Structures are given as structure tokens and as C-alpha cells.
Amino acid sequence: VVEGALDTVVSPQTAREYVAAACENGNKVEYLSLADANHYQTRQASFQESLDWMEKMMRGEEINSSCNSI
Question: What is the 3-state secondary structure (H, E, C) of the chain?
Fold first, then answer.
């Protein structure tokens, strides 16, 4: 989950609550907060991180879980 700290469409608090709920339900969630991005900038601002994550998934590697830090 990628969220922008400047997001006014989906608040950062809502994103964190979503991640926390997903974690509580046993999901591994990697959470990235971008300090200088709004809702519309997150995709471009996290492009490389998203590609890296997808490559890890394609290789069958374990994803990093942010559940312990939410």
C-alpha cells in the first residue's frame, strides 16, 4: 500500500487503518508513506518501489511486512 502524506482524497490515517485491518486479518502488507506526495502523485513517486515489489512477487520471494510498524 502506497499513500501520500499530503493526500486529501484518502487520508493517511485511513490508509494506515486499512493496513492495520489487513494485518489483523493475517495478511502481509508492505506499506510505504511518501512525505511529499498527494493522492495523484503516489503512483509516479513510487514507480520504482512498485516495480521492485512486483519483481519480488514474480520470483516467489517473501515480501516485507510493515505489520509490526503500523
Answer: CEEECCCCCCCHHHHHHHHHHHHHCCCCCCCEEECCCCCCCHHHHCHHHHHHHHHHHHCCCCCCCCHHHC
- Does residue 1 contact residue 18 with C-beta atoms inside 8 Å? yes
Residue 62, CA distances (Å) to 29, 57, 65 in order? 11, 7, 9
Residue-wise pLDDT for 40-68, tens only, equals: 999 999 999 999 999 999 999 998 999 99
Give the other-Cβ count within 10 Å of 14's Cβ. Answer: 12
| Contact in structure between 64 and 13 (CB atoms under 8 Å) | no
